[in-house]
Amino acid sequence: MIVTRFAPSPTGRLHLGHAFSAVLGHSRARESGGKFLLRIEDLDQGRSRPEFVEGVFEDSRWLGIEWAEPVLVQSERTQAYAEALDHLREKGQVYACFCTRADIAQSLTAPHGDSATSYPGTCRALRDDPERRATTPHSWRLDSAKALELAGLPSWTEVDGRCFDAEPSQIGDAILARKDAPAAYHLACVVDDFESGVTMVVRGADLRPSTPIQRLLQRLLELPEPIYLHHPLITHEDGRRLAKRDLAPTLAAMREAGVDGRELAADLLAGKLPLGFAFADE
Ligand code: GLU
Fold this sequence. Notes:
single chain; 282 residues; alpha/beta; Rossmann fold; Glutamyl-tRNA Synthetase, domain 3; 2 domains; three-stranded parallel beta sheet; three-stranded antiparallel beta sheet; binds glutamic acid; ligase activity; nucleotide-binding; ATP-binding; GluQ/Sye
């Protein structure tokens, strides 16, 4: 059975790009008699807002999307992430990192468009120091060299059958947890995809750089391998990304302007975009 999910971060209202991801995942599940799930990725508690969580449900309903219960809410899943991290720690696959908050602040949300591979490994060679850990804010990083040695270079398969081997350069010492947050994006994502039995990960092509590291984590945690559908991104016609700072129209604004959500969903699936938008070249 095909199980897909739409996993937005409730840090703003959804826009057309989110709608495309959601309707694509929904239709892939439905046409095969499978299951479509919603997941709320609210690990970044500083930026997540209850009204945006409500917005996810409201916008999804407007698009004609029906989801299966339960809806996983990441801020409620602390225990599951802690267990996964313990497992990796026992295997010697992670190390404590004391680098500054600014370095690690971005790790809670999905890194759209850039890979998280640039950490120079400053704390990798430190001997584990529980006393320092008890008193100093720190994060936990994947020891990618050790992980690759144990699990080998991962690969992934797209729904169209193409198979990709990860490059070692695509896998860095990603942050997996922080002192103030039980898990960062990559770890939470694979633990939750497993918990929900997700078999097909449908998400934008800007998240493709996250796939090698997530596949590696799945191998280390001995989790089953989903297939991937990284769909083209929708941009403004002039190529600008859809982002809050670019004043992308929200689905809520489209609804208020009288757009029919179900028609919009059908158009998106047929590859038809509203005026002013385009699919980005890969
Ligand atoms: N929460 C991520 C986002 O807002 C999506 C993560 C995923 O689909 O793996 O884009």
